[in-house]
Design brief:
Elements: H1 3-23, H2 30-33, H3 36-44, E1 60-63, E2 71-77, H4 83-95, E3 101-106, H5 114-117
Parallel strand pairs: 2-3
Antiparallel strand pairs: 1-2
Helix pairs in contact: 1-3
């Protein structure tokens, strides 16, 4: 695995997901969206092969601009979407009590039959 490419990919994914949340009315600070690759490397690291950053480091919470009690958890996972990862996401949502929404971002493709089996 090329660390430079993997770091770039993780930065791009996090930046895109942050922008999508902001576009849908969730509070995401401008500095999170426009951090730049250098800032991302300083905060999260630039050696994905050594776990810096790992996919799970990129997870974050957002709350809706119009209703601060409407929170959502963005869960980054480097595991395939399966029952175990969805159970872990569900547990995080339950632990936070007020959370009713969660999005799982994974590095694996999801086959068309997978959502039906879950």
């Amino acid at each position: 695995m090329d660390d430079e490419f993997e770091t770039f990919k993780l930065w791009r994914v996090r930046e895109t997901v942050s922008q999508l949340c902001r576009d849908r009315g969730y509070v995401v600070y401008r500095r999170e969206i426009h951090r730049g690759l250098g800032g991302f490397k300083r905060q999260y690291g630039d050696q994905p092969s050594e776990g810096r950053p790992s996919w799970t480091d990129l997870s974050f919470f957002v709350c809706h601009r119009e209703n601060p009690n409407d929170e959502m958890y963005i869960c980054f996972s480097d595991e395939p979407a399966n029952l175990r990862t969805f159970t872990r996401l569900s547990q995080i949502l339950q632990d936070e009590n007020a959370l009713r929404r969660g999005v799982q971002i994974t590095s694996y493709c999801c086959c068309p039959a997978k959502p039906n089996t879950l």
